[in-house]
Amino acid sequence: MLRPRVGSYAVYEPAEEGWEAWETQLAQINRELSDHGLEVIAAPEAVKDLDSMERVAQFFCTQQLDTLHALIVSWSFDHYTLELQQRIGVPVAIRAIPGIRSGSMVGAQQLGSVLADLGVPYRLKYGELGDLTVTAEMANFARACAIRNRLRGARLGVIGRRTEGMTPTAVDEVEIFRLFGVRLIHYGLDELLDLAAAIEEKQAATVWERFRTGAAQVLSASEHGLQTARNYLACRQIIASQRLDALAIGSYPKCQGTMCLPIAWLNEEGLPTGCEGDVNATLCMLILSQLSDAPVHFGEMLAVYDEENALVTSHCGCGSPSLADAKGYSLTPVRLANSGVCIRYAAKPGAVTFVNLVGRKGNYRLCAIEGEAVPTGMVFEGNPLKFVLKSPFRRVWSYVEQYGFGHHWMTVYAHAVPVLTEFTRLVGMRGVFPDAETVV
Questions:
Q1: Cβ neighbour number for residue 200 with a 10 Å cutoff
Q2: Which burial class, exposed, middle or buried, applies to 374 when counting CB atoms under 10 A from its CB (0-12, 13-18, 19+)?
Q3: 131 near 164, Cβ under 8 Å?
Q4: Predicted TM-score of the model (pTM)
Q5: Whole-Å CA distances, 253 to 193, 196, 275, 335, 336
Q6: Which domain covers residue 407, as residue numbers?
Q7: Is there a single domain that holds both residue 89 and residue 131?
């Protein structure tokens, strides 16, 4: 799971009251941040004058930070943090603490005001030492900063084209690069199939046997399994040669039943992979993959159970095997085409967040709702995941209508709305969060 690197330091003015406690105060805050899953890089000294600022800046410059965390111990000069941030180039979390004579609140507001004028992303928080609600908010901001940093410079492969007739999956490649920092790397489906055809049968047979191992049932023909294995190995060649961080495969309808298992196994191995050529959905998977140790589930809204306030989401059989419930998974021909190989299972229970990402230049938007996945049967021939929503379904549906969200929804095994709220603010896109009835 993502572990943001946070550069933590204290700022004070020696002429003000209360500065003597900075070491104790900073040590406590650093422990609290660490307990919330952050990798805290503590400055070796406090920032109190130009010389100390220079030394702290030099220390942080080598640390590959995701964000700075400034504890404002007393009123202090804002230009120290301004100059430090300019050198490090990351967002700033500002922490003010109580103290009527220290001026911490005053110094924190002063710094935040200038950062706002400069257009530097920041968060301004206030609370007693030991206030874990504030610490959690800081941690959510740090995770959002870390996700943004991981996206910048990421490479998302696109094999084939988007599915005809699914116009919401059309993307603006330049806007993806501008907004998220992710570059698209394109391959024709013919290039993949040529690579697959050159793979020896012995190598494919070894991989197919690996796919079969652990399955509760195998109903697909061996020749289909071998083709699936060749496609998987061809994908791995492209991933390695291009150093990809994620992959979208135009799998429908031409590759129905021949790309499902490669998609499942690539996700299982930690490379977010989407189907039907949906780049935005794959980008969403890349974002969500950093918020859980479990792979991301690719699906669609398929059924509503009003009496339970529950949804079922599924796709045709490209889910990661580790998401299966205790009954395990089967390898079977894909529905409708009744050929090839897909993976079927009912998804395991747990805390989840259901997310949709759509848009292009000027209107990228993300919707996220939380819930609890519960046991379900094979209510749809694929990877059905049933979850009870935190909010009434009709409220969720009204937001889907109002903001025009699409049909591919990704599910991450985590409650991720607080981090996603921070992330949408950070990158400058619309975030829609029905649980909180909030639009960012």
A1: 10
A2: middle
A3: no
A4: 0.95
A5: 15, 18, 11, 12, 11
A6: 155-439
A7: yes
User: 365-378: per-residue pLDDT in tens?
Assistant: 999 999 999 999 99
User: Of the candidates 83, 117, 151, which is a domain's last residue?
Assistant: 151
| Rounded to 5°, angle at Cα 221 from 215 and 227 | 95
For residue 25, the model assigns a pLDDT of 97
Q: Of the candidates 50, 48, 64, which has an alpha carbon nearest to the alpha carbon of residue 9?
A: 48
Strand partners for 370: 353
Q: What is the mean pLDDT of residues 413-429?
A: 97
Region 35-53: mean pLDDT is 97
327/323 Cα distance (integer angstroms): 11
Question: In this structure, what DSSP letter does residue 246 have?
Answer: E
pLDDT of residue 56: 98
Q: For residues 380 and 180, give the distance between their C-alpha atoms in angstroms, rounded to a whole number.
A: 34
Angle between helices 279-288 and 132-151 (to 10 degrees): 140
Long-range contacts (CB closer than 8 Å, 24 or more residues apart) made by 374-378: 374/310, 374/349, 375/325, 375/346, 375/349, 376/312, 376/346, 376/347, 377/346, 378/344, 378/346
Q: Per the structure block, which two tokens stand in for 185?
A: 């790397």
Q: How far is CA 242 from CA 283, 288, 353, in A?
A: 17, 22, 31
Question: In terms of domains, do 185 and 72 share one?
Answer: no
Are 408 and 298 contacting, i.e. CB atoms less than 8 angstroms apart?
yes
- Could you give the CA distance from residue 165 to residue 147 in angstroms, rounded to a whole number? 32
